[in-house]
Amino acid sequence: MASAPSLDEQDYVRGGATQTAVKILVVGHFAVGKTTLIGSISEIEPLSTEETMTQAAEAVDDLKGVQGKTTTTVAMDFGRLTISDRVVLYLFGTPGQQRFVQMWEDMARGALGALVLVDPERLADSFPVIDLIEHYGLDYAIAVNHFDGVPLRDERALREALDLLDDTPVVTCDARDEKSSAAALTTLVRYLLDRTR
User: Which of 29, 85, 99, 127 has the greatest number of CB atoms lying within 10 Å of its CB?
Assistant: First the structure.
């Protein structure tokens, strides 16, 4: 049996196409900054399904540590970021509440990987999110969203607390800052490229 011919970069772009679209999930627990990150970096007006939280939601969503939160994503966020003349990222932000988990299967379909946003003060809230990403077989990087007034955490302690593999990238970012968000996504994309080589 003859071996398959090797592929080069050109083989991943259809004839006449100038860019390759890459689907990336931006995930994390409730109120970690997913909408903010996509809004800070998207080169198009991001699609956001933020709605005002109701009293009914307050009874279901844990607002501990995020008492000032008044809106929440009820479907998804969407943004786009061109990272080179050949590659464009399509960013899909998932809702963080448990009641929206059924949407994740559809959103994970066709995704190359995920950027998992983590709040260092609510690490336990990240466990179900990481479990879901691993369940869907997606490679991921961890982006620790640095909130004002919170001390930076030791990476080794974060890795141990989140039970991460040694090669899983961990970066600190500020989801409000375009450059910081771009650096987190760049770390993820480099990791995904290394995994496919």
Answer: 29
pLDDT single digits (tens) 139-152: 999 999 988 778 88
- CA dist 61 and 105 (Å) reads 21
Burial letters 3-23, b for 16+ CB under 10 A, else e: eeeeeeeeeeeeeeeeeeebb
For the chain, state the CA radius of gyration: 17
- Phi, psi (deg, nearest 5) at residue 93: -95, 130
pLDDT digits (tens, 9 = 90+) for 28-77: 988 899 999 999 999 988 776 555 645 554 545 555 655 555 555 545 78
Nearest C-alpha neighbor of 126 from the set 179, 168, 176, 70: 168
- Closest to 181 in 3D by CA, of 146, 133, 140, 131: 146
| Residue 115 near residue 181, CB atoms below 8 Å | no
Strand 139-145 and strand 113-118: pairing?
A: parallel
Angle at 122 between CA 120 and CA 126, to 5 degrees: 95
Sheet holding 139-145, edge to edge: 47-52, 71-82, 87-93, 20-28, 113-118, 139-145, 170-173
Confidence of residue 103 (pLDDT cuts 50, 70, 90): confident
How many angstroms separate the CA atoms of 150 and 173, rounded?
13
